[in-house]
């Protein structure tokens, strides 16, 4: 009888032990699945951490943007992995299939995903600073102040009028938390790389410095709506420069007046005193009137060989131009254009 009881107790103990083991295994599997449960995303989510944000802000972003699988377990893991005291600024990618330990390691290491920084069609330093600040952890006012800082800009080889020539429109991979000085140094390196020996040789043959090429390119781009006219307009302005004629470029007047939206240039605009007003001053203005594109710069470096000295918008208001070699021909073109403006009541 006693033997049976011992055997029964033994069997009961085995079953209890087995049950506990199964519970532990199930719990372990559940815990493992919870810890390593992947993020399910249709597209990559980005977490932005600036110098004002802390661990709580990161958790909030993960919940909102990436659907954090388990906030409770994330907090436990983050604490165990010593992340809350190691929050680093940056832009971090949360990709489909990543686990919570994966993203904690990325965040803790400061393993950022770069931003594809772009800036096109920028007319002023303020426009440029604003566009860059939209894409980076950077204040636009601070960047604009840097672009107006004489000592800082002179050290880069430019001045307040020419510094925007340093920014060659392209796509650049930049870390989101890059500071202003590092960004400016990067743009100077890109500028130096852009101005190859071939481009510098072409500029020298035209009797222009790289900055002067950019200045003329900025005028060409403001003057011509269509890129296929860039080389023609560039050739025309180079002809005028060679002859010592004033450029008389309407876009420089708009820049001098401070109104790029002017649709009709009046005599009062032509009389505005400014070193940028090429109706009053011979030669190129002191700097670009916009950030010229690579296409515009290359159009100046490889201009159309023509004898044109004058240009006027076509009277169909298509944005294209009539080109002329004589003032008489130009006067006829200009009269037709003025009639078209009057008929449409554009003043």
What kind of oligomer do you see?
single chain
Q: Give the N-terminus to C-terminus distance in angstroms.
A: 117 Å
Helix proportion:
40-55%
Instruction: Give the class from helix and strand content and strand pairing.
Output: mainly alpha
Beta fraction:
5-15%
Unreliable spans are: 18-32
For the largest beta-sheet, the strand count, sense and barrel status come to:
2 strands, antiparallel
Work out the number of β strands.
6
User: Taking all residues together, what is the mean pLDDT?
Assistant: 91
Number of helices: 15
Whole-angstrom Rg: 32 Å
Overall form? elongated
Order of helices and strands: HEHHEHEHHHEHHHHHHHEEH
Total domain modules: 3
Major beta sheet, strand line-up: 1-2
Description:
By secondary structure, the protein is mostly helical. It folds into three domains: about 45-110, 2-Layer Sandwich (Dna Ligase, domain 1), CATH 3.30.1490.480; about 120-195, no CATH class; about 205-345, no CATH class. Helices cover about 50% and strands about 5% of the residues. Strands 1-2 form a two-stranded antiparallel sheet. A two-stranded antiparallel ribbon has the order 3-4. It has a two-stranded antiparallel sheet with strand order 5-6. A hairpin with a 7-residue loop joins strand 5 and strand 6 (about 320-325). The longest helix has about 35 residues, at about 1-35. The chain is elongated and about 85 Å long.
Structure characteristics:
elongated, 347 residues, 3 domains, 6 strands, Dna Ligase, domain 1
Summarize the structure.
The chain has 347 residues and is mainly alpha-helical.
